[in-house]
Every structure is written in structure tokens, then in C-alpha cells.
Design a protein that fits this description.
Layout lengths: L15 H4 L6 H28 L4 H18 L7 E2 L5 H32 L11 H18 L1 H5 L10 H10 L6 H20 L5 H15 L7 H5 L19 H30 L5 H14 L9 E2 L1 H9 L6 H16 L9 H15 L4 H5 L4 H16 L2 H22 L8 H7 L13 E5 L13 H4 L8 E5 L8 H16 L3 E5 L3 H9 L3 H4 L4 E2 L2 H22 L1
Helix pairs in contact: 2-3, 2-9, 2-13, 2-14, 2-15, 3-12, 3-14, 4-11, 4-12, 5-15, 5-17, 5-18, 8-9, 8-15, 11-12, 11-13, 11-18, 17-18
């Protein structure tokens, strides 16, 4: 049975949960139930770990995952995205709690939620793209380092009365306490990491965090390990529904919370839209950024009313949701209901979970969110891109995340102005210039049926790279060979190179060949520094469109030869 009905409201402002009902059926519901329960179990240890790392009780993380997970799936603009507490907020939340207390955190979360609703309602959802890749990479690397440093105490079972908030002081105190390390706690943490890595290596469908957490808990319980657990530190997790309570509003805190609220809103917007893009690639869908931000904003306004943390889209849980077979936002709603069932019926069992196991899980989370594989690629680019990354990374680790985000935005603006100004040239038209241009014009070229040509016109910098979706939107209609003409692309940056690499990988995974042609000096040099030819093949980077068409012919002949041999 299919739910099919007309809606007269503008689809641009409808959440995906409503749009997906148009062709919803029992088969999709069954798959959503399986995916929702799976990702709900995966979310359980992560939600507790993020809350504890933020300086709160483990139930605060579960309350957040239940409330925001439900609302983000119900009101958001992504079909399979899972919302909840994430590692991005750990450092900033811990800082807010340390300075302003719980009331300050709840106020900050609600203020950030209002900012997200305003961003979405005013159509500014796409404005997040104006943050360049080196800035995003810099503070995700920095956050990963900070999260890992906060877990050293529990990972090794160190005896430390209070871990400082500043990175250098934290490392100094932990180093001084290292002689007190516990062999049993370390073994549990290391085994947790090994199990998670092994689960990932065997199959992406195996819920590594829940398998590792259950294994470590059973081992600690039956072997009578004298290690710290959720029960010994927090007294367990209370059973039952989270209680609704309107947070107290302190006008005196508003001014001091404006910066942190802006940081939470920007991090929430960036991570949720990055996660939504991952969701789109994996589920062959397209999210609505403005509706997604409105859903995220509402969730963050409501979360503090139930004692929850800030929330955003969670990339790892979203990927787990899709791999488990999710078909619609109903899976995200069921994930929230699964966590609610755990709260109501199995909360006492959480008392036996070792803190070392949660530390091991967060170490893997920190590694995964760091995107370390991109650093070698970034180091091949311009000194400007490298310096922007280093400044953002350094400020995140050694100063403050709020300062890092604000500095990143300023650097992004200056970088944009510099790159655009460098695209302006004044030159005399000569006979050589006219003759050189003949090889690049399209008017006298015959484009064969097995190839298509896209062109990039103007600077291909951060803020403009989403326009490459003109290719991916028609992926299933494209012929075997796709040519991108770069003759009129005046400049490119790290974000632009990253976008072209993603397009190349998507085309390759669909069995198509990408050919680039006509790149000018600055784009050509930067792409060569980034070793872009390793992604598409040196033979698929051509000097002009004439060479590109000849290359397309050779590729198509090779395809036909293979097809004939297969017969």
C-alpha cells in the first residue's frame, strides 16, 4: 500500500519526512525499522561518550539523541541523515559549562538554535559553502586532537582529580599522572579499539561501537576488573522518560554567550550540511539545506528543555543508517524511539559500562573525524592554503574554538578577495592569441554521441564549487565520456580541486571516464601540485578541446573492444 496524495504547499519548505510519504509503502517501512534499530544501538555508546567528554552526565547525551534525533528526522531536509550529539561540540560545550555552568550551556544551545532557524528561513543554508576546505580541515583536525587528549585519562585509567581545560596544561597534568596508569583499563580500551577496527574491516554493516562496548562491559563484569564504570562515577543512568523543564534565562550571560552561540551554530550548520552531502552520495538523493537548518535549529531549541546537548547531523551514524537499508526519515525517528526504549527498560544495565571502553570508542571517533588523509594532499597545494590550515588548526588546539572559527571566517574572506583579484588580467590581443584560441573554440567541433562537454566559467573557488552538481544531478543520463572544459576557469583553490576530485571519483565509480581540457596557467599549476593526474590519469588531462575529443574517441573504442571481447 502506497501513500500518495497531493500537497499544495511549496515543496521547497517541506521536510523530507513529508515528501517521502508520497511513495511510502510497507516494504520501505520494514527496512526503515531495521535501519533505525541498528543505528539506535550504535548511537547509544556514542551519545553517552560525547556527554561525558563534554563534562556532563551520560544521560544528557541520550536525552539529546532521543529528542534531537526525532526532531531532525521529522523536520529536516535530508532523507537519511541522523542527528544527535557529535564530537564537534565536545570541546566548545566543555568550555561553556566550565565558564557559565549548565544554565549557560542551555541558553547557548537555544541561542544557536534560533540562529540556525534564521539561517534556514532566510535562505542562507547555502552560505556555509563560503568556508574554504583548509579552514574546515583545520578545525576538524584540531577538534579531533582535543577530543583524543580528553580521553587519555580514562583510556589509561589515570588517577587525576581534575583535568584542566587548556590543552598544554591538560597534557602536562596527564604526563605527570602517567605512573598511575591501570593495566586493566588500558587493556579494555585497547581491545575496544581493536574490536571497532576489526568490525569495520570485516563489514561496514557490523555496528562496531555497540559490539565493542558490550564486549568490554561483559569482560569487565565477569573478570571482576577493578575499573571505573558509569555506575561508580555517575551512579548509573535514571530509567524513564526525560523530564521537560524550561531552562532559566539569565540576561547577564547573553553578551558572553554570543560568541559561543555563533560557534555552535556555525559548527552545527557545517557538520550537518557536510553529513547531508555524504547522505546524498550514499542514498542517491538531494537534501534541502534551508529546511535542514530549520530542522536542526528547532531541535537545538528543544534539546535543552529536556537537559540535552547541542546537536547536528552525525556523519558516521548517517552512513550506518544508509548501510543498514534506511529508505526515509522514518529510520531516524525509529532510531530515537530505540534509544527511548533503552532509557525506559535497560538504563540500569548501563552502570556496568567501563569508562575505558567509552574512551576507546571516542579515540576511534576522534581519528575518523580528523580526516587525516587529506593533509598530505593539502601540503602539495599553495603556501596560502597551507598557512590557512595551520592557523585554524593552531587556534583550535591552543587558543579557543570560537576564536578559530571567527579567524577562519576572516581568512576565508581575505582569501576570496585575493583569489578573485588575481583573476583580473589586462593583455593585448595579438595574432598569436587569436591563433591559439582556435584550438579551444567549440563552434566548429562535432561532439559525438558517446561524449558530453561541461564548462566551468569564472573562478572555481570555495563558495562556487557546489555548482559542479550540474554534472552529478544528471549522472544517470550521462554518456560514457564526460569532458570538462576549463578554458574559461580563471582560478581554482584547494576546495575547487577537492570538488573536481570528488566528481572524478563519482564518474569513475559509475563506469564513466572524465577528461579535463584547456586549463589556464594557475589552475593547471595547482592541479599539478595536487597530483590531480593520479585521480583522473595523465592521459585524460588535455591541452585543448580538440585533443579531448580525440581522447574521448580512443576511450570509446576501447570500451567497444572490451564489450565485443566479452561477447
Amino acid at each position: 500500500m502506497s501513500l500518495d496524495f497531493p500537497l499544495h504547499i511549496d515543496d521547497r519548505w517541506l521536510p523530507k519526512s513529508v515528501l517521502c510519504l508520497r511513495d511510502y509503502n510497507f516494504n520501505k517501512f520494514t527496512r526503515d525499522v531495521i535501519a533505525g534499530i541498528t543505528v539506535g544501538l550504535v548511537a547509544l555508546p556514542l551519545a553517552m561518550a560525547f556527554a561525558i567528554a563534554s563534562g556532563l552526565t551520560p544521560q544528557a547525551g541520550i536525552y539529546c539523541a532521543v529528542v534531537t534525533g526525532f526532531l531532525i528526522s521529522l523536520l529536516g531536509g535530508s532523507k537519511t541523515q541522523i542527528g544527535g550529539p557529535t564530537g564537534a561540540f565536545v570541546v566548545v560545550v566543555a568550555g561553556i559549562v566550565a565558564v557559565h555552568g549548565l544554565d549557560g550551556l542551555f541558553m547557548c544551545t537555544m541561542m544557536a538554535g534560533v540562529l540556525l532557524v534564521v539561517l534556514g528561513a532566510t535562505g542562507m543554508g547555502s552560505a556555509v559553502k563560503f568556508i574554504p576546505r583548509p579552514v574546515v580541515l583545520g578545525f576538524t583536525n584540531g577538534i579531533a586532537v582535543l577530543i583524543a587528549s580528553t580521553q587519555i585519562k580514562d583510556f589509561f585509567g589515570l588517577h587525576v582529580a581534575k583535568v584542566p581545560g587548556e590543552f598544554w596544561l591538560r597534557i602536562k597534568v596527564l604526563a605527570a599522572a602517567f605512573p598511575s596508569w591501570s593495566l586493566r583499563a588500558t587493556l579494555l580500551a585497547v581491545c575496544t579499539v581493536v574490536v571497532m577496527v576489526a568490525c569495520r574491516a570485516i563489514s561496514n554493516r557490523i555496528p562496531g561501537p555497540i559490539v565493542a562496548m558490550l564486549g568490554a562491559t561483559l569482560a569487565a563484569y565477569f573478570l571482576k576488573f577493578p575499573v571505573e564504570t558509569i555506575g561508580t562515577r555517575f551512579g548509573g543512568i535514571p530509567s524513564g522518560l526525560p523530564h521537560l523543564a524550561i531552562p532559566q534565562w539569565h540576561a547577564s550571560l547573553v553578551h558572553g554567550l554570543l560568541g559561543p552561540a555563533f560557534t555552535v551554530a556555525m559548527l552545527g550548520a557545517i557538520e550537518s550540511l557536510m553529513s547531508a552531502v555524504v547522505s546524498d552520495r550514499m542514498s542517491n538523493d538531494r537534501h534541502n539545506p534551508n529546511v535542514e537548518l530549520i530542522g536542526q535549529g528547532v531541535a537545538n531549541i528543544i534539546s535543552p528543555m529536556f537537559g540535552g546537548l547541542p546537536a547536528t547531523g552525525a556523519i558516521a551514524r548517517t552512513a550506518t543508517n544508509i548501510r543498514a537499508g534506511a529508505q526515509s526519515p522514518v529510520a531516524g525517528i525509529i532510531h530515537a524511539l530505540t534509544l527511548l526504549c533503552v532509557l525506559m527498560f535497560a538504563a540500569p544495565l548501563a552502570s556496568y559500562i567501563p569508562m575505558a571502553a567509552l574512551a576507546g570508542i571516542l579515540m576511534i571517533v576522534a581519528y575518523n573525524m580528523g580526516e587525516w588523509r587529506e593533509i598530505p594532499q593539502l601540503l602539495k597545494l599553495t603556501k596560502t592554503d597551507i598557512s590557512v590550515w595551520l592557523v585554524t588548526f593552531g587556534l583550535t588546539v591552543f587558543a579557543d574554538l570560537t576564536v578559530a572559527v571567527e579567524a577562519g571566517m576572516i581568512l576565508a574572506a581575505l582569501l576570496f578577495i585575493t583569489r578573485v583579484s588575481n583573476t583580473t588580467t589586462v593583455s593585448q590581443v595579438t595574432d598569436e592569441y587569436i591563433e591559439d584560441g582556435r584550438m579551444h573554440i567549440l563552434q566548429d567541433k562535432d561532439i559525438p554521441y558517446y561524449a558530453t562537454i561541461f564548462r566551468i566559467h569564472g573562478p572555481f573557488l570555495f563558495g562556487a564549487t557546489d555548482k559542479i552538481s550540474a554534472i552529478t544531478e544528471k549522472m544517470h543520463e550521462l554518456p560514457p565520456v564526460v569532458i570538462i572544459r576549463l578554458r574559461n576557469m580563471t582560478a581554482i583553490d584547494a576546495t575547487g580541486v577537492y570538488a573536481l576530485e570528488e566528481i572524478a571519483r563519482q564518474l569513475h565509480s559509475s563506469g564513466r571516464t572524465l577528461i579535463l581540457c584547456g586549463a589556464r596557467e594557475q589552475p593547471f599549476q595547482l592541479m599539478r601540485q595536487a597530483e590531480f593526474e593520479e585521480v583522473v590519469g595523465r592521459e585524460n588531462i588535455c591541452a585543448n578541446v580538440n585533443e579531448a575529443l580525440l581522447r574521448a574517441e580512443a576511450v570509446f573504442e576501447k570500451i567497444q573492444t572490451k564489450a565485443a571481447a566479452a561477447k
